Amino acid sequence: MNGCETLIKPEAENATTEKSSHNRPTFRPSADIRELDRAYELVVDVPGATEESIELTLKADQLTVEAKVADQAFDGYQLVANGYPVGDYRRTFRVGDGINRDGIDASVKDGVLRVTVPKAEEALSQKIAVKRVD
């Protein structure tokens, strides 16, 4: 962070899992927030999710990621132990006023969701020339 107020930050959530209304565990996925010159980038782990199963919504000051993961199908082997429980993902981020809400873009590859949240023009830093006074 650069010491300025962050324009996007994760909501405070205590639980890492919760039961959804359809009786499946819902996990709070790990996420990084990166500040770039002209945007923020959210990197959210959603293993097993596809572009069709991810829902990204922006309502008021909350950006919410929800991802549904299909039950696993096992071809050619039988599962002896299950160390990776199957469930869905949900995480919310608070969005400040200095965001260009119309420019938000998202893509997913190999279970990693990347959301680009551009800064509004008024939130971008400006370089101000300093004049010498004699």
From TrEMBL:
<dbReference type="GO" id="GO:0009408">
    <property type="term" value="P:response to heat"/>
</dbReference>
<feature type="domain" description="SHSP">
    <location>
        <begin position="22"/>
        <end position="134"/>
    </location>
</feature>
<protein>
    <submittedName>
        <fullName>Spore protein SP21</fullName>
    </submittedName>
</protein>
<dbReference type="Pfam" id="PF00011">
    <property type="entry name" value="HSP20"/>
</dbReference>
<dbReference type="InterPro" id="IPR002068">
    <property type="entry name" value="A-crystallin/Hsp20_dom"/>
</dbReference>
<dbReference type="InterPro" id="IPR008978">
    <property type="entry name" value="HSP20-like_chaperone"/>
</dbReference>
<feature type="region of interest" description="Disordered">
    <location>
        <begin position="1"/>
        <end position="30"/>
    </location>
</feature>
<dbReference type="InterPro" id="IPR044587">
    <property type="entry name" value="HSP21-like"/>
</dbReference>
<comment type="similarity">
    <text>Belongs to the small heat shock protein (HSP20) family.</text>
</comment>
<keyword id="KW-0346">Stress response</keyword>
